[in-house]
């Protein structure tokens, strides 16, 4: 503890504003979703207000933290707290994705084969009674009810074979995202050597690659909906595909925004020093994390 | 806001701000701890009132007081409120008050986020409770919200339920990150890991469990939301999903959640038994290792909640043995508590009474858990009142008794005043008798086959249900006495000394009573 004094921030309005913003956000989201069929419903404005309040609060809260940091109020101990805090936050994100990957493994290994009549338990008999025509496969292009309640897809996103590899968007997405992980690392190396130009340039490239990734992902979704007939409503393959890639895409956007903010702070405000740049480092950790998630997706959602 | 930065050296030693803004904008771990504790008390009373409705309906066979639909809403909200609004925030409140004082830290590591974690909760529970007044009523599918009850057949308010669980989860994750970071980074020099007080250890492990499983719960409710409103089929077999998948995901969260609600209790009881035995705690390091083993095992036992859904035989056997394995570290802990008391100079102040009752009654709950772990036996017990008796024995005289013990034990340090010992003992005996009269008979009616979650039952169960209801009213109304005792102590009473209890050890007993607004501005010396 340097100097024996620890900076305990004074009272702050931000937390309760943020809690209130979250309240508006979830109230707005719930009532909007519950009234999707009602065109006269106004609840979406509550949702927008919640978003706006949340962004404003976050902006001013972060500004305050940065100001305090620049004023030299953060002890080394507090800086260490931010490091631990970010690491544990990323761990919680890992567990969030674990739930969806767990669902994917479960349906692929157990649910779909059982529905097609595999296994010794009574469940298999029920499935054969109810849905005799259903056969187990992955990607499963049909549903046990043969599309009565669901819109069956014509084509899946799976690996198309070497002959069509170059037209296959996920491959390009992988290349883009892996390169961006590398460029953000180069930016970090530049900063550690005190080379701001290199830092800004590589960070700029990273943000650009993030945009390209999101664009390609949007294109892929468009193709899925418009040409493949693959939607959220296509049964369990569509469900797992869109939820896993969708949450990943959302995290890419979050990470991209973080990196863009870091870029703006460096370019316009000259923030970050050779040995003092945890704000950037935390964002880059997050970026490597979404990259690792993508590799898992590439393997388990697309290839295998 | 920049004034804050310039003034901070003057701010350092001042007291709390005046008026309501003290509580709204506070960054002080003691204020936030107090907020958490009062909030959980309010939720405890609301959830308790729902339990009274349930027991009033079950007082006699036949339908007398409420409609079956409303009964379902009551059992659902009772569970959700007691778990997410009562027990968990109470433990977070205790962690806020005690962890920084026990490790010699000036405050929690991330004080503003600490305030945010608390203030999300009133909003989240406002949303959850407001669902009672919505079209179709409140959630009615039980606190475990199994699909398809919570998806295909759910009332519209399920959307509000889903989002309130989301923000409760965010609050828990932030609270837990704060505790972990505080413990890892803010210990005074000399407080090494194996010198940490056991309450701190128990919370380090609990926080790890929270960060690991709350996101999984968020994933589960997100899949529900998508199934209900956006056409996915995670939990619908017709689309290739599986309702059992919901149970797997839910219990992967749910089982560690059970330990989240008991590990801090282990920490509390260890301190209290040590103090009132006037001996050193028996087997400190085995206590730590036992808690770690319990936490790790908690990730591989979830399917023991699902023995009757049609699991493959190999899975049933694996989850049965893994579950029984947990009895070993738990047995180590019970042994150590008993060994600490053995030949100690015992006195029986209220906290000690609650702690001893904890050891005895929690062990009963643990043993009925072992019975439930046996697969063929569970086929018989599953979803009967035996299960209700089991988990209420570990949660009420387990988790909640430990929270009450903690309040009696530390309230002199928090308020500077001693509580009324006579009233405290009265509260203990009323609660102890009430809890046993309520839940012990439920073992009998459960073994005799009474299913849980029904508002009506066969005549053969009438007598024990009436006994159980009488006990529940006794227990419920005794808690108003607890409220009175707490308020009386906060308002005044005999002044407490700094050490309060003559056997008490630990940093929190070295500071003044009541503890100063900012405890340690320089780290204390610990050898």
UniProtKB/TrEMBL annotation, chain A:
Stored Pfam families: COX3
Major enzyme class: translocase
EC number annotated for this UniProt entry: 7.1.1.9
A cellular component term, taken from the record's GO annotations: membrane
Molecular function in Gene Ontology: cytochrome-c oxidase activity
Name of the protein: cytochrome-c oxidase
Membrane topology: Multi-pass membrane protein
Compartments (UniProt record): Membrane
Species this protein is from: SAR86 cluster bacterium SAR86A
Automatic annotation (TrEMBL), chain B:
Gene Ontology BP annotations: electron transport coupled proton transport; oxidative phosphorylation; respiratory electron transport chain
InterPro entries per UniProt: Cyt_c_oxase-like_su1_dom, Cyt_c_oxase-like_su1_sf, Cyt_C_Oxase_1, Cyt_c_Oxase_su1_BS, Cyt_c_oxase_su1_dom, Cyt_c_oxidase_su1_bac
Gene3D superfamilies referenced in this protein's UniProt entry, alphabetically: Cytochrome c oxidase-like, subunit I domain (1.20.210.10)
GO cellular component: plasma membrane; respiratory chain complex IV
Membrane topology qualifier: Multi-pass membrane protein
Domain Cytochrome oxidase subunit I profile: 23-527
Subcellular compartments: Cell membrane; Membrane
Enzyme class, first EC level, given as a word: translocase
Pfam name, any one: COX1
Reaction catalysed by this enzyme: 4 Fe(II)-[cytochrome c] + O2 + 8 H(+)(in) = 4 Fe(III)-[cytochrome c] + 2 H2O + 4 H(+)(out)
GO molecular function: cytochrome-c oxidase activity; heme binding; metal ion binding; oxidoreductase activity
Pathway(s) per entry: Energy metabolism; oxidative phosphorylation
Transmembrane domains' residue ranges: 35-54, 74-98, 118-138, 158-186, 198-225, 245-269, 281-303, 309-332, 353-375, 387-411, 423-444, 464-487
Gene name in the database record: ctaD
Entry function: Cytochrome c oxidase is the component of the respiratory chain that catalyzes the reduction of oxygen to water. Subunits 1-3 form the functional core of the enzyme complex. CO I is the catalytic subunit of the enzyme. Electrons originating in cytochrome c are transferred via the copper A center of subunit 2 and heme A of subunit 1 to the bimetallic center formed by heme A3 and copper B.
PANTHER family per the UniProt record, alphabetical: CYTOCHROME C OXIDASE SUBUNIT 1
Source species of the chain: SAR86 cluster bacterium SAR86A
Protein name as it appears in the record: Cytochrome c oxidase subunit 1
Family per record: Belongs to the heme-copper respiratory oxidase family.
Leader peptide range in chain numbering: none
Keyword annotations of the record: Cell membrane, Copper, Electron transport, Heme, Iron, Membrane, Metal-binding, Oxidoreductase, Respiratory chain, Translocase, Transmembrane, Transmembrane helix, Transport
EC identifiers of the protein: 7.1.1.9
Family annotation (SUPFAM superfamilies): Cytochrome c oxidase subunit I-like (SSF81442)
NCBIfam families registered for this protein in UniProt: CtaD_CoxA
Domain of life, per lineage: Bacteria
